[in-house]
């Protein structure tokens, strides 16, 4: 087992190499120079920075070096876990990520957990009454939800529930109210939770469809297996047949898929962050892209890639752990 | 006691029967077909030129003059669809092939024509007097500005007008073409790349498979937003649609590739594959004629969901400001504009939002119906 | 006093206007300790009958349209669910055709046998010991260690032995064996049938063997019921039937079994036109 894991981790490196190389070259390909854009680009840029300052910036960030040299520099630094500094404000990339990552993780993490907690029971409930009203109703509802684009849902929610013309139950932007720094810990926590409700709803509802359908199919398949008949023939009450024998088998694929969703914890929510004005990783990436801020783009991309690949590895490991029939290949 | 007659049912017949049994899937399919027809006929349904005009004793068809010849392409799709329908048995026999060929053909035509953009021809036939004229149902062009700005829905403008007086209903109809084109083309690209890479990886296995799998992972982890941004800024905005299609296609093939790879891995170790190889079938033949038709079910499902997803991505991009720019009528673009005026012009958000919702929902229903029809494991007990 | 008595049982599937009559009015009896074989081809209704004995058939889509099943004084078709479960696994036990898929892959075999014991024999103190004994009885070597194995780690023959052990754990009065050896290869078939014979002799358990293979019947069953299209077309003691089959279908079935030394060039095939 450990050799398998080691082998998989070793395979990560060429993949990471590919991703970072591709990203780097693409950034270089894009028109617009970070230094030029820094001053605001165009004429404003020329006015906001003197020529010397621009030259200095370019030199400092290696923007004058050919692509492969610059990439090698970056790669050498990243291996030592040095993410470099952001071109736009000279702050350490690691620090910038560090300020925004907890927010994105708490938002996306809550959404992820919540969606599984809601969707799995929904899928199982649908499977148990296959073809009947409950099944159809759940399927239909979940589909309509899936089809609503996130920005439409966000707009609607803001319009009706948050500071709009109708109800004013929840705050519509930001992650804390303006006077947050003056609140005691509990109030602050409560305030933050209130601010998180709408974004988390927007992030959760769409994935209810896929997870619940997956759970439903998996449960139906498990219920059709021979060992369910054996369990009944043994005299087990129906409740145990379903929830002990069938469910345990049905959950196997669902749990493993869970690990594949982890990457969303890093970058998933650009649109939601944009609409609700939340200072998260998505916004960071967006701003970095517009400013051609190489170090930040590379830093975020690398982080996201590492998490994604580790997520795949975790999914495979989970699969082996949870299903006794599978052993590492 | 009678013995039931043996019916000759092919895989696809059975698939179709199971699909039809699902009520939502049926409705979804009808909606999809309706959207396709509407998109195809859009220049005839919403145009400021008359279909037929009789004046000074002469009969003219202004509408055909106003269309660039390339607009006629959607007219070509209708006979193509009819052909497919009438020869469906032959088509279904070579289904794997046909699917790829049809989508590839559509994609190529669309790619060539994506470079076109609607002509802003202010001369309209509404006001020109004639002894008889037959105007299209919506007598406005999607890019024609009128002085009637921010008009709420009325008989004159069924869905109202926007900030420059453009008729929303016309923009919606033409927007359908854009969404569908983007959906179909991007998925055709994704389909071709996905089947090519995933299929060969699953069939040949070994180091080739390892290399392809790593490549798939690389593309998956790649920030597609970056690619879109670069693509858009590198090229003039007039051709945005082409690059959006390309980028979405180039970044969404990984799901298809993984799927096809998995299916081929499974199928290629089954007896029928060995049988075909033993008889001397070359690799290409085995892949195209034996393996691909068997993997067709899940592929169709993925393509359907992919189209829905592509439409969603395009509207999200337009919404964020990266996608189609005005005056091209994209649903996402209209929605994005609506953000500013939502207080008093609710129709700017309602209609495009509804259109996106219904379109995506229909494709999702079709996809789900296909998935249920295809899944051999869902035995009815 | 008969152990099991089936009276004019009728089971149908499909729409009531155009039903598939899986079981079309069959009646038979079994005594305690008796071994009865039900022989017929696929679709004859034998498996449906077997499952019906404890109402294991899902009731939609199956419909019990007529008849009565009496087991040890209980009216199976009208028994409340709770009492029925007390009979399943406890007084009537089953083994099925595909042992590999009949065992739950995510639980150890020890756990699955334990379930049966804890359910019906809560008074047993040393459950682990019981399990080991059960595994030993069916001929599994090194049962102490095997207990913690998962089904996929065992061969087909051993899996079927585990199924038998699980079925016998609560000392049932009737064992229903639905094609227990069809999925196993021939040498293992013989082993399993020998095991069943052994178990039959050591306890006073009645066995209902469902099979399509007359070859298994000869050495094993006391009586034979021949089923065809939902009806019992012939019934009698094994020796009578084998020596002197009356019904053309029975004759055809017997002739299907190839015999050593026969000089036929083609295997016999059943000609349905001559029956029914």
Protein model, in words:
The complex is a heterotrimer of chains A (329), B (381) and C (276). Chain A is mainly α and 329 residues long. Chain A contains 15 helices and no strands. In chain B, strand 1 and strand 2 (58-60) form a beta hairpin. Chain B has a three-stranded antiparallel sheet with strand order 2-1-3, with no helix packed on it. In chain C, 34% of the residues lie in helices and 24% in strands. The relative contact order of chain C is 0.16. Chains in contact: A-B, A-C, B-C. At the A-B interface, helix 1, helix 7, helix 8, helix 9 and helix 13 of A face helix 8, helix 9, helix 12 and helix 14 of B.
Individual helix count of chain B: 14
Shape annotation of chain B: globular
* Extended strand count of chain B: 3
Q: Give the helix level of chain A as a range of percent.
A: over 70%
Could you give the topology of this structure?
The complex is a heterotrimer of chains A (329), B (381) and C (276).
Chain A: H1 2-29, H2 34-38, H3 42-48, H4 51-60, H5 67-79, H6 93-128, H7 133-147, H8 150-161, H9 185-223, H10 226-233, H11 238-260, H12 264-267, H13 270-276, H14 281-290, H15 294-322
Helix pairs in contact in A: 1-15, 6-7, 6-9, 6-15, 7-9, 8-9, 8-13, 9-11, 10-11, 11-15, 13-14, 14-15
Chain B: H1 11-20, H2 23-45, E1 52-55, E2 58-60, H3 62-66, H4 73-86, H5 88-93, H6 95-113, E3 132-134, H7 168-204, H8 206-221, H9 224-234, H10 240-267, H11 271-278, H12 283-320, H13 331-341, H14 347-374
Antiparallel strand pairs in B: 1-2, 1-3
Chain C: E1 4-13, E2 20-30, E3 35-39, H1 46-52, E4 63-71, E5 74-75, H2 81-87, E6 92-95, H3 99-102, H4 109-120, H5 127-137, H6 143-146, H7 156-168, E7 174-178, H8 186-202, E8 206-211, H9 214-217, E9 223-228, E10 231-237, H10 238-243, H11 248-256
Parallel strand pairs in C: 3-8, 3-9, 6-7, 7-8
Antiparallel strand pairs in C: 1-2, 1-4, 4-5, 9-10
